[in-house]
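Bench log. Compound arrived from synthesis this morning; before running ITC I wanted a structural hypothesis for how flavin-adenine dinucleotide sits in the protein. Inputs:
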Amino acid sequence: MTKLAVVGAGVGGLSAAIYLQAAGYQVDLFEKNSYIGGKMGRIDTGKYRFDVGPTIVMMPEIYRQVFSDSGVNPDDYFQMSRLNPFMDVYLAGKKDRPLSSDLVDITKTYEGVSSQDMAGFLAYLSDIYQRYDLAKDHFIARSFRSPWDFWNPKTLIQAFRLKTFSSSYQSLKKYLESEDLVKLLAFQTLYIGISPFNGPSIYNIIPMIELLYGVWYIQGGMYSYAQALERRFKELGGQIHLNTAIESVTFTNKNADGVMIGGVKHDYDAVVMNADFPYAMNHLIPDKAGVKPRRYQVEKINQMDYAISCMVIYLGLDRQYEHLNVHNLRMAEDFFKNIDELEKGILPDDPSFYAYYPSKIDDSMAPNGHSSLYVLAPVPNLKDFDDWNEQQTKDFIQKVFSRLASELDLPDLLEHIDYQQIYTPNDFKSEFNSAYGATFGLKPTLLQSNYFRPHNKYPYAQKLYFAGASAHPGAGVPIVLTSGELAAKEVMRDLPLPAGKSRSLSE
Ligand SMILES: Cc1cc2nc3c(=O)[nH]c(=O)nc-3n(C[C@H](O)[C@H](O)[C@H](O)COP(=O)(O)OP(=O)(O)OC[C@H]3O[C@@H](n4cnc5c(N)ncnc54)[C@H](O)[C@@H]3O)c2cc1C
């Protein structure tokens, strides 16, 4: 029996583990925490429930695919419903307009500004859809193993056709005159922790995906999805070991052949690493194994670019607010300055934030008459700002609370807080071993994307694979699910199962 270790039960680890177990390998999944899901965790107070990290469900087919590929009907594991309008936006201190993926609503919004902007919007959609179509087959849903997988004329031509050299913001400005409309399509790069003002324009696919494939809600919150993945893995015969931190990966002649737990070596035929790539390189892959080239030694790893992080406030409230949508976004008065500060390591004076209110449509998130509110403010990662002392944290939260009160029309919010919990980048670092508390991992700059992002098959040793937000193809739940699938398929290429041992997987 070919035995595999998967390190980390985040979305990437769970996805890889299901693909591998379904294919016929025996998989042990190790997680340092007492729960599965990683950042897709849940705070459960017994009264209130909160999703710890991800909340916005996009690309629903990818959520379903890991189940259908492993031979079951996803509808038997989790329930999704579409949200529309999918987000309320607050601009310039007041409620602006709801974002809708209905063409009639969109036309009203854009024509309401000008017919040129409507025409510009349609041109943007057509252009970005073609680039998305190229990117998904040539760069997202495939892994890069050897330099020739990228440095060949066909792929280079496709890379050129992606036209990704301008920033998201510059690219949108070519289509739209209205600054407000540009902002409504630009802020989404923050979903992967990069500024729209210098992030590659290919990330304008994110608002397109919201509009063309919808924004969805998973009943019970995101953690129900992590539980569904766990259930599927166990049904297939996989083993989960919670509260089990891996101390290092072991190597013999540059072949990964086990993991160290409590000072004892456990033998495996291969290792799939879901712990954050930079953390894993610095802490779990020993220097003495001779498998780290200069570019992956501590100093260089620390010099890599890390994504913008976030602070999240989780509030259990003893009342409900009818006027809030499930997803609500408040943009700073000077959005450019706000984003610039995040990248320069300054805690914004006028923070943008996103408020998630799932109990509006899901009774399992709070008791009758109560509600649960999650407020996420983008903040610098710990490499750029690490002074989260008590006063600093308090002052920043105060800035968020005062804007929630005045702009989101929650004047009595403070009087109704029944439960409060805060996660700063330090918590994301300690809870999930995320390097520099960067909640979205390595920043997806051009030089840290596609072929240039850490590969799913590690190039400098055999039998070591990476799945997760800092590996290819990148951050965000559907993309990390894909990362798990790609890593699993790389394992299958290297360690084919003997005939009769493998189960067929849907390609
Ligand atoms: C606040 C926040 C909001 C977000 N919002 C969205 C959203 O709305 N939509 C969306 O699609 N995405 C969102 N994301 C991004 C998305 O959640 C992540 O990209 C994704 O969950 C990352 O999964 P992962 O498997 O790469 O990493 P992780 O979830 O970090 O999993 C890695 C796992 O490895 C474990 N581990 C680490 N070291 C060890 C060790 N030594 N031994 C054993 N286990 C170890 C960790 O404990 C963890 O469980 C959000 C993220 C955050 C933090």
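What the model suggests: The CA atoms of residues 30 and 495 lie 21 Å apart. The pocket of flavin-adenine dinucleotide is lined by residues 7-13, 30-33, 38-40, 53-56, 245-246, 274-275, 284, 310, 312, 376, 428, 432-434, 439-440, 468-469, 475-477, 480 (CB under 6 Å).
ITC booked for Thursday regardless.
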